[in-house]
């Protein structure tokens, strides 16, 4: 059986003064690969993963990184969906890495994670602890990061549209022609 290369998605944050805000989000998207059959290695310049899923499909990827990371201060979360990494950049700097990989050649399996991406000039306005501290907003207690669901979906301001009210009074009646063909009334 052939070895497949998994999809890798990534995003980043940078800081020239706070090393805890200077990291990469890297996700290796391999579903149903148990931790027992996975081998993940982090070095200062490389991330490599090899694993076999429950159906027997083998995956392997080796990423030579653009610059150095700090493996000791990086985080790993292995789930049934894949492997999520928060890799601490070794060098402080406000500038983003121009790419994830050392080689400038585009590879088909590395993609930008736009759910986590923040533009370089907007990163101070973004929540900095969204993924790095809580892996995707899940709090330490496994909750959803303090979201108050009771305040969601409360209708429109002023109480309009609550309790399934239907307001059909303002809709015009449809007209039918004698021949049985339906005519769509133009609303202006």
From TrEMBL:
One Pfam family it belongs to: CS
GO biological process, one term: protein folding
Comp. bias intervals (Gly residues): 146-161
Comp. bias (Acidic residues): 162-179
InterPro entries, A to Z: CS_dom, HSP20-like_chaperone, p23-like
PANTHER family: CO-CHAPERONE PROTEIN DAF-41, TELOMERASE-BINDING PROTEIN P23 HSP90 CO-CHAPERONE
Family note: Belongs to the p23/wos2 family.
Name of the featured protein: CS domain-containing protein
The organism's taxonomic lineage, starting at the top: Eukaryota, Fungi, Dikarya, Ascomycota, Pezizomycotina
């Amino acid at each position: 059986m052939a070895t497949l290369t998994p999809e890798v998605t990534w995003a980043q944050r940078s800081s020239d003064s706070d090393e805890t805000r200077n990291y990469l989000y890297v996700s290796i998207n391999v579903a149903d690969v148990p931790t027992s059959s996975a081998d993940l290695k982090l070095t200062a310049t490389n991330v490599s993963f090899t694993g076999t899923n429950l159906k027997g499909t083998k995956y392997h990827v080796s990423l030579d990184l653009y610059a150095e990371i700090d493996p000791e201060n990086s985080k790993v979360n292995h789930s049934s969906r894949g492997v999520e990494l928060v890799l601490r950049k070794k060098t402080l700097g406000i500038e983003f890495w121009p790419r994830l990989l050392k080689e400038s050649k585009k590879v088909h399996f590395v993609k930008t994670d736009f759910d986590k991406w923040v533009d370089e000039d907007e990163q101070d306005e973004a929540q900095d602890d969204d993924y790095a501290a809580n892996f995707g907003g899940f709090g330490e207690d496994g909750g959803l990061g303090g979201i108050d669901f009771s305040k969601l979906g409360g209708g429109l301001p002023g109480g309009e549209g609550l309790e399934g009210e239907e307001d059909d009074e303002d809709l015009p009646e449809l007209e039918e022609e004698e021949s049985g063909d339906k005519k769509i009334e133009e609303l202006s």
